[in-house]
Amino acid sequence: MDSLKELSKSRSFDGNVIRYSHESKELGCEMKFHIYVPPAALTQQKKVPVLWFLAGITSTDENFIIKSGAIRYASKEGLLLVCPDTSPRGCKIAGEDDSWDFGTGAGFYLDATQEPWSKNYRMYSYVSKELFQLVNSAFANWVQTDNHGMMGHSMGGCGALNLTFKNPGQYKSLSVFAPICDPSNGKLGAKCFKGYLGDNQDLWNQYNPSHLAKSYQGEKLDILIDQGTADEFLNTDLFPETLTKVQNPNLSFTLRYHEGYPHNYFFISTFVEDHFNHHSSKLNKFC
Amino acid sequence: MDSLKELSKSRSFDGNVIRYSHESKELGCEMKFHIYVPPAALTQQKKVPVLWFLAGITSTDENFIIKSGAIRYASKEGLLLVCPDTSPRGCKIAGEDDSWDFGTGAGFYLDATQEPWSKNYRMYSYVSKELFQLVNSAFANWVQTDNHGMMGHSMGGCGALNLTFKNPGQYKSLSVFAPICDPSNGKLGAKCFKGYLGDNQDLWNQYNPSHLAKSYQGEKLDILIDQGTADEFLNTDLFPETLTKVQNPNLSFTLRYHEGYPHNYFFISTFVEDHFNHHSSKLNKFC
After folding, report:
1. How far is Cα A129 from Cα A165, in angstroms, rounded to an integer?
2. Which residues of chain A are within 8 Å of residue B264 when distances are taken between CB atoms?
3. Where are the catalytic residues (chains A, B) (predicted)?
4. Which residues of A42-67 are buried (b: 16+ CB within 10 A; e: fewer)?
5. pLDDT of chain B along its 287 residues, tens only?
6. Mutation site, B10, B83, B227, interface A, largest A CB count within 10 A
7. Which of A59, A154, A210, A280 is labelled catalytic?
8. Which of A12, A258, A269 is nearest residue B71 as measured by Cβ atoms?
9. What are the tens digits of pLDDT across the range A199-238?
10. Omega of the bond leading into A116 within 30 degrees of 0 (cis)
């Protein structure tokens, strides 16, 4: 992959945290992402499963790798972690940087159809196709190319659910922290959907986990959802029970409420070990 | 403590991460600090030991609490964690913000004697006296006021060693990550010592762990030192073996070199569990 540039590399828990940049064709800009290569891949010359984390609004590729405490568990469970950015960067679209919850940092993991966003704001195709293929090809010596799992937080929880439901089999395990489950009916989701997708409700449904869950027909998925009761977005944006009340024999939901926990990484770090165990029990059984 | 203002509070690992601000008399400015209150203090109505972490140059009170993964262990071991800032802030001293390694963010945990620094740059007295007393009085319902331990990283490792050696009995356990052990002979240390203390080598010695270690006469201390071999400051600033070669029957050193590890928080997070075990085995035996 001659387009992949290594920006930094640091030892952690006997593996390597590496930050790369590359020119994205889908997004038309340079993008950064982080990976963590666990010692199992480095030293035991054994290929490992891949676990993705999609971050929330205002985050970059750095937040989860720095703040979540996840490296310990990625190292222990032998999972190669991939942390993409949350939107295109520096595309110089008018209005891109005007608000914290639209444009830069808020790509919502969808392919925009509205001008002026439709050329660059293609995070759905970027993450699920371009970066997926790049990871499998660039890191072919480290990863099991057919054994990926998916996590996400908030907007990234919405993305994690959508990408998994829309690509049956591509991600074999799924868990989310405080996900936006019904974006069409939430403040943040509706603002972004209107801006990126216009008024077409059929399009909105294509990026709404609570809608997609109804027709999902892939392999059975057991989805772990952690949610804090003191989450400041719970009643305006997240609506986990709209998702978990969907009746689909191919989906089961474990929704855990945690008394007093907010929306931030102090919450995520508390429960991230359980998520790695959830993914490892699925992904590592193929080893 | 009516001067203590709660800026934020977040649940994590069944305890609370709290950020405070207060008016520091020693420093003549408003200062921020973080604490983590473990569940043992909150729910078991039991007082717990206090563990301090002094951060390195350019850090604030946020770095360790956000990046180290330490909360998991503070929760498990039942230690109340205190993370001070690294210098006075906003004192409007000419030159304060001109370089990354002097002035703001680089207080070096000493009491400056040179103008214009001597009025505000009193981090030694701030941490070891003012904030020590504030923690014991403001959090008297949570902490064992006579049972504190001390950690630090880089410049904060230097501070942790100095504060402990200069105040026998005040900190009963001690560990450091990549500490500056002989600041008088290092690039960063000599620049700060010259600026804050002038040319008086007797004064420099009073903040040099490798000098103070020779005359330490307090209770026996077993000091854990972790050091990465790929640390970019190892050969210009840290000099751990200048410290560990000091012969003093009241001090023992466990210096561990870690192949390929750098100076950052990916290094710290890898070994922080061992440090909490080190402190807990000393501090919790009084319970």
Report:
1. 14
2. 10
3. 154 (charge relay system), 231 (charge relay system), 263 (charge relay system)
4. eeeeebbbbbbbbbbbebbbebbbbb
5. 458 999 999 999 999 999 999 999 999 999 999 999 999 999 877 899 999 999 999 999 999 999 999 999 999 999 999 999 999 999 999 999 999 999 999 999 999 999 999 999 999 999 999 999 999 999 999 999 999 999 999 999 999 999 999 999 999 999 999 999 999 999 999 999 999 999 999 999 999 999 999 999 999 999 999 999 999 999 999 999 999 999 999 999 999 999 999 999 999 999 999 999 999 999 998 55
6. B10
7. A154
8. A269
9. 999 999 999 999 999 999 999 999 999 999 999 999 999 9
10. yes
**Domains located in chain B, CATH noted:** 5-286 (3.40.50.1820)
Residues comprising chain A, all counted: 287
A10 with B264: Cβ contact below 8 A: yes
Residue pair B197/B228 in contact (Cβ under 8 Å)? The answer is no
A99 forms beta bridges with A102
Is B99 an annotated catalytic residue? no
CA distance A266 to chain B (A): 5
- DSSP letter at A127? I
Looking at the DSSP bridge assignments, the partners of residue B228 are B258
Extract long-range pairs of B70-74: CB within 8 Å, 24+ residues apart. Answer: B70/B36, B70/B272, B70/B276, B71/A266, B71/A269, B71/B12, B71/B13, B71/B15, B71/B17, B71/B36, B72/A69, B72/A269, B72/B13, B73/B272, B73/B273, B73/B276, B73/B277, B74/B13, B74/B15, B74/B36, B74/B38, B74/B276
Please state the separation of Cα A202 from the chain's center in Å: 23
pLDDT at B286: 54
Distance CA A47, CA A80 (A): 9
Contact A12 B267 (CB under 8 A): yes
Pairing of strands B80-84, A15-24: unpaired
ipTM for this model? 0.95
Distance between CA B272 and CA B32 in Å, rounded?
A: 23
Report the predicted TM-score, pTM, of the whole model to 2 decimal places: 0.96
Task: Quick: pLDDT tens for A25-65.
Answer: 999 999 999 999 999 999 877 899 999 999 999 999 999 99
The pLDDT, as a whole number, for residue A286 is: 54
Q: Is the dihedral of CA B151, B61, A69, A125 positive or negative?
A: negative
Q: Residue B256, Cα to own-chain centre: how many angstroms? A: 19
Q: What is the DSSP letter of A80?
A: E
A62: its two tokens: 């750095």
SS3 A105: coil
